[in-house]
Prior knowledge:
The protein has 187 residues and is of the alpha+beta class. The chain folds into two domains: 6-109, no CATH class; 116-183, no CATH class. The chain has helices at residues 15-24, 126-138, 181-186, and strands spanning 6-7, 32-33, 36-39, 42-46, 57-59, 75-81, 88-101, 104-112, 116-117, 124-125, 144-152, 167-174. This is GH3 domain-containing protein. Pfam families: GH3_M.
Amino acid sequence: PQLEVVVVGTAHGAEQLYCDALRQADCKGLPFYCPFYRAAGALLGVNLWPEEPAPRFLLCPPRTVRLGELWEGREYGLVLTARPGEYRCRAGEVLRVAGFHKQCPVVEPVRRESQALSVRGESIPEERFCRSLCRAVGMWPGARLVDYICVESALLGASSGACAPHYEVFVELRGLRDLSEGQRYKV
């Protein structure tokens, strides 16, 4: 009863489902705060705006970032450089520049490049798949998506049958008790 804020590690992508579930249940009306932006095992940014509903992060850029080349509203792939500059690695993070705080860019995480579905080379970002699945579940009255996983048919081996490559989607839903047999079949 004394809880004033919910601190989360991340609040985008599929993790948004868990945040939404907490908001609808035990944490109704409480603010959610994601204090840090981490990727590839490194602390990359700090959220200086805890009152904002969507987390934004003050990016702590390495010296190799040319701040004058960043544009507000554009998306960028994050590249990390080792301290002595000996090597660089793509973190797989896509960030959107939301603005600037003094000379440092303020970023919003958009998606992870590695979190994409690509059974036939179509490269569907996981974030887009999650939004589409939520819209589809929203078409069933009273239904609520609790959790899901999507795998490419190749991962299932013989259980996926001999048909062309496809996705297998497993969902956990709530609120579907009063569905007819025909409606259950569609689910």
